[in-house]
Backbone:
């Protein structure tokens, strides 16, 4: 039981850390997006 | 509008992705590194698909925009599973396969719920916004997981050269994209650089994985002392 809870806790910690990092990195967001996968041109952003 | 240089990089990237799968097949490692190959195949199919949609509909069309963002979300999920496959390799000696699977599913579900929480008040184009948000959030989760995996590699003194090469290249790949994103936000006046740089970065991962398949055999080992000296 404790191991399952530890796994759940770790998942939540990683999620919180990742979202915190996203907030820091995008702190001064000017509408740009992060598209990281594969080849191709990102389509123009529509505001 | 994209120019000849952009198209050249695009074609190069598609060829490199195909090369990774071919090298993996030649080295008889396709099944062992199935999640990595799945990601490369998905990326290859997406690259070709994007080109077809772009040629038919144009860069500013709704079709291309939707195809681009939806395919990006699928690729991010594939990349997440590739990363979890690497976790399984590193932690296999600990017999933690069940926990890795549970962890990955919980984290994926948590990210999906969080993404829904962010956009649930939007009424228009909710599914599109959700796919976009999920893709972005999962990307940052992947970034954090890669660094944690590198910590596990150092702590457990993982010595398999090929696995280390995969993990390091993934770390560089994620980090470069995150740096590009951050710099784009800080220096938006240099937008022409930040728009084109990701295309060049996208070629790094297939190059590194191709190199790993060709240069290292499955039995190749690195001396732990060459990675880091960790006091115990």
Residues:
């Amino acid at each position: 039981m404790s191991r399952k809870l530890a796994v759940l806790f770790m998942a939540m910690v990683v999620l919180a850390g990742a979202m915190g990092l996203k907030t820091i990195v995008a702190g001064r967001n000017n509408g740009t997006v992060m598209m990281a996968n594969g080849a191709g041109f990102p389509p123009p952003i529509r505001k | 509008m994209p120019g000849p240089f952009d198209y050249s990089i695009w074609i190069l990237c598609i060829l490199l992705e195909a090369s990774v799968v071919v090298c993996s097949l030649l080295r008889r490692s396709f099944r062992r590194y199935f999640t990595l190959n799945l990601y490369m195949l998905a990326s290859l199919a997406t690259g070709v698909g994007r080109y077809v949609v772009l040629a038919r509909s144009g860069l500013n069309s709704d079709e291309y925009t939707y195809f681009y963002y939806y395919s990006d979300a699928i690729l991010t999920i594939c990349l997440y599973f590739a990363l979890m496959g690497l976790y399984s390799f590193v932690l296999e000696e600990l017999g933690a396969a069940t926990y890795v699977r549970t962890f990955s599913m919980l984290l994926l579900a948590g990210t999906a719920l969080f993404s829904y929480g962010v956009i649930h008040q939007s009424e228009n184009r909710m599914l599109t916004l959700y796919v976009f948000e999920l893709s972005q959030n999962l990307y940052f989760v992947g970034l954090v997981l890669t660094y944690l995996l590198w910590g596990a590699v150092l702590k457990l003194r993982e010595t398999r050269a090929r696995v280390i090469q995969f993990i390091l290249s993934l770390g560089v790949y994620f980090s470069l994209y995150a740096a590009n994103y951050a710099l784009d936000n800080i220096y938006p006046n240099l937008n022409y650089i930040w728009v084109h740089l990701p295309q060049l970065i996208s070629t790094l991962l297939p190059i590194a994985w191709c190199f790993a398949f060709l240069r290292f055999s499955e039995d190749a080992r690195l001396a732990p002392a060459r990675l880091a000296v960790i006091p115990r």
